[in-house]
Design brief:
Number of helices: 1
Radius of gyration: 14 Å
Structural class: mainly beta
Helix content: under 10%
Shape: globular
């Protein structure tokens, strides 16, 4: 099992930026072997895919919600995945979740992931 801890959330004004971090750990854990995803859930809505990155560095984005504003990256020396968010708007307000799985496909589907962080709040004020 993989433990995931998110950080970097908070309150930001519209047009601002935030960087979320997710540190992964576990017994006999090999960070490179895991694809990492970011999802978000706004009040009253389903948890939706934001971005994912494979161990090789290949990335996926939900273009409708991200629209070129978000960048996912990973640092294997720190076992950490990042989500850089720019030009934030009130529609980005949500709890953001980090997820991990050994799978290389289906990364846009939350059912793919076995391990999840506790989530972190991002609030964008207008």
């Amino acid at each position: 099992q993989v433990q995931l801890v998110e950080s970097g959330g908070g309150l930001v004004q519209a047009g601002g930026s935030l960087r979320l971090s997710c540190k992964a750990s576990g017994d006999s854990f090999s960070f490179y072997s895991y694809s990492m995803g970011w999802f978000r859930q706004a009040p009253g809505k389903d948890r939706e895919f934001v971005a994912a990155i494979r161990g090789s560095g290949g990335t996926l984005y939900d273009q409708d919600s991200v629209k070129g504003r978000f960048t996912i990256s990973r640092d294997s020396t720190e076992n950490t995945v990042y989500l850089e968010m720019r030009s934030l708007g009130p529609e980005d307000t949500a709890v953001y979740y980090c997820a991990a799985d050994r799978s290389l496909v289906g990364l846009e589907d939350r059912r793919t992931y076995d391990d999840w962080g506790q989530g972190i709040q991002v609030t964008v004020s207008s």
